[in-house]
Known about the structure:
By secondary structure, this protein is an alpha/beta fold. It has helices spanning about 20-40, 50-55, 95, 110-115, 145-165, 175, 180-185, 195-210, 225-235, 255-265, 280-285, 290-295, 315-320, 320-325, 335-355, 375-385, 435-440, 450-455, 460-465, 475-490, 510, 555-575, 575-590, 590-620; strands spanning about 5, 10-15, 100, 120-125, 130-135, 165-170, 210-215, 220, 240-245, 250-255, 300-305, 310, 360-365, 415, 425-430, 495-500. One 2-acetamido-2-deoxy-beta-D-glucopyranose binds near residues 86 and 88. Keywords: Membrane, Transmembrane, Transmembrane helix.
Amino acid sequence: MPIQHTVFSRPIRLQMPPKRFQAVLLVVLLLIVVTFYGGSSRPSLPTYDDVADVVKHPKAHVPSLGELPAVPKPFGPSAHRPPPAQANNTATSAYGALEWLNDFKWRNPFSSSVTLDENTALLPPLSDRPPIYTYYDVPGKQDKHTSAAENRLILAWRRAWWAAGFKPAVLSRVEAMHHPQYMLVQRMKNLDPKIAFEMMRWLAWGHMGGGILVNWLALPMAEYDNPMLSFLRRNEYPQLSRVQSLDNAVFFGQRLGVNDAIHKVMNNALLENVTESKDKLTKLANKEGGIVANLLASEIAVDAKANGIASYNMATISTKYKTVADKLTNTTQAEGLDLLANLINSHLHLTWQEQHPEGVAVVKPLPEHTTALMYEATNIARNLTQCPTSPIPKSCPPNRPKCKPCDANKAMKLQEFPEFVNTTKFFTIGTVPHPYTLTSLHYTRDAIDSNFLRNNAKRDIWIRELTRKSIPKEHTESYRVLQFKELVAATPAHTLWLTAERVTQDDLDWIFGFELPQVASDTTEPSSSNEKSELIIFPRPDHPKPIERQNVPDEKWVAKEEMRLKKARDAIKSKDRNMKLTVEAVEAWSLADTEAWRFSRAYSARRRMERKVWEEEEAKFAGSEKKAGVRPGEGGGRWIDRR
Ligand SMILES: *[C@@H]1O[C@H](CO)[C@@H](O)[C@H](O)[C@H]1NC(C)=O
Ligand SMILES: *[C@@H]1O[C@H](CO)[C@@H](O)[C@H](O)[C@H]1NC(C)=O
Ligand SMILES: *[C@@H]1O[C@H](CO)[C@@H](O)[C@H](O)[C@H]1NC(C)=O
Ligand SMILES: *[C@@H]1O[C@H](CO)[C@@H](O)[C@H](O)[C@H]1NC(C)=O
Ligand SMILES: *[C@@H]1O[C@H](CO)[C@@H](O)[C@H](O)[C@H]1NC(C)=O
């Protein structure tokens, strides 16, 4: 008896094979089911042209849709859960217990007056990060290198949006399958793959309950408080909208609006017989805004004044960035994507540099004996002021054609100051030392005892030196600490405060939203790292000039500083009773300095923590550090130590 079987929902006929084969068949079928549902292996291999097409139309990423059945997948890839409706994320729970509290009363010079525990820092509540979604789906098996390159690009996308204050999530077909209308799209036979892709994208977005949907080649490229980015961060989108001239790269709208739109599209007469209306649909799909927007026509508002987002679609790449476009061919796909990633990274870095016209300032209060303390800050400052590595150094981001490209001969300024200069034209980097560390360095003492403290050490020298010029003399230390806290917690941040006792800085990329240059030209001219590379690298800026009238210590003394710094780190961590008492005495001697140290330390620990938690949640989705092959930095978990 012939039985009706289906494979990928296409009916096939097969005769019952002889008995002994039935068992084998069963095993094979079972294997197929397990690999198919359980893993991410995909049924068909795309041709080279398919792959090339993918990049030519990054907005419509899928050349062909394998017809996946919409059954729940017990072992399948997991979907993002939609965020709860209108959650009030005051975010006290996850981080509260560690070593800080989030409290609206954080504007208090001394945390302990609120927390009643002097080791707990009081931080401002985390600001809400509205979710932002992108859709990524590869239909068939794809070249390993291409996938890796795409994952790196998506990671760059996630990083940039994270730094801009959003919570970026990468959706896929799995989310679309959770949408009630998914089967309707499935049943449309002969639907053009590009159109189907756009619909899946909307379904996945609808499943998440609306918000912001952007293409993964659309990145924020403007100052933090650019009107459009600020508007998007507010997470209230009264009207379903797209952005003029960005095609289908950016949509935003509320849950109701999005699902309403999907509903209307599904009931559109043109979709009743896709074969019949093929030409009309193709025409609509090629119009600015994409198929869904054009089937809806007037229901999607068009925002005309938005300039905060740069979209790297194929049209833009091939007209503006030819070097990259030339590589996006059949055989050099992965290479081309990597060039694109570098180009985007350089534009993000450039945008950041342009926002700080006076350059980078390294603050070094009490400069005589604190050279070793500033290594890390100087390192970061030099890389930030270096011209970004790029395949096309003279190019501008697509949304800002009149930018000022980085010029290695007139590079961003890098200066050292003995005190904080209160202007946002600088980006300021400082190192906050524990008072024990600073006392040891400043007074060049290998060990400190209470006698020395009482007889020789001045109180709160760090905070006083730091704010000597920006805050008038008559103000107290508590006032200074409070101003300092405001500075650390400010958004947008124009300062970065490291703590002297932490050795690694592994989340800089997420703070800035781009990767700092890691290689530099070894001559004074731009060059490339090897003959085949199309990337231009730039010389690394010199160390900043020493502060005027400061004696520059010679190497012998700096080596001593390094040694003292190491000893101080050990002392602060020490479990030894006597040592603990000494450290406590130093803390009590310089309450304001201690508070500044605790606050900035807790603040950056929480920032790392917030990101790590998010990274872990996203680890299994495209574009996570794990999928992009980025190893999380060393020293994870350092934030746990209470001291
Ligand atoms: C969120 O906050 C608003 C106003 O503070 C309140 O009316 C609403 O009930 C809260 N919603 C939830 C889910 O807690
Ligand atoms: C759709 O239109 C085509 C061409 O006009 C026609 O051959 C086909 O029968 C139609 N299909 C349905 C289900 O009406
Ligand atoms: C891509 O490669 C295929 C076969 O390898 C070839 O037929 C096709 O012309 C190539 N396409 C381009 C755009 O180079
Ligand atoms: C910086 O300047 C602003 C306003 O001019 C002021 O409110 C703030 O206290 C200053 N901060 C510091 C640390 O000097
Ligand atoms: C800065 O660049 C140098 C190479 O030029 C690299 O060794 C170093 O790790 C970079 N530092 C940071 C913080 O990115």
